[in-house]
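Backbone geometry:

***
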Amino acid sequence: MNRFSRTSVIPALLIAAVLLMVGLAGTATAAKLITGKNIKNNTVTTQDIKNNNLKSADVLDGTLQEKDLSGTVKAKLNKPAVVGYEVVTDTVAVPTAGQSTIFVACSAGKVALGGGADWAGTDTSQVIVESAPQKQIGEFFAAPDGDAATAWKITGEHNSLDPVNLHAYVICVNPS
């Protein structure tokens, strides 16, 4: 004779079904209940974070250092984002207590983004009188007048007793 009756099997089956549903729902419920407040500081490690899951908004500004970046990322960050980047330099010896102007031109087909100069010495009487974009017209230079600058003009003067070298540069790129 059968020891189990039909009325005793149904409650057991219901209890098993309820326990199975609670067990399966437990992980979903836990995911909804666990927040950052529940996690102890400094306990989440690299292995706990899925690759390519963090975004820049997830990282506090100023916390990444160069050592944290891969070689590929470093190369992209240090590479100029412009095409045809070049720096053209020239030097002129400014005579004793004198003034000189030097023009530094980009290679053909390039435009000037900026320019500047510095002195070889550190005398306080050395000054840059003018630093301005120019356009090259053959062997001559003029203010760009709305055209793209293709050169840089530097005028410097000093009151030293000896000639001093004035180094000028222009930063050039291919036009876009």
In short: The chain has a mean pLDDT of 83. The first strand starts at residue 86 and ends at 94.
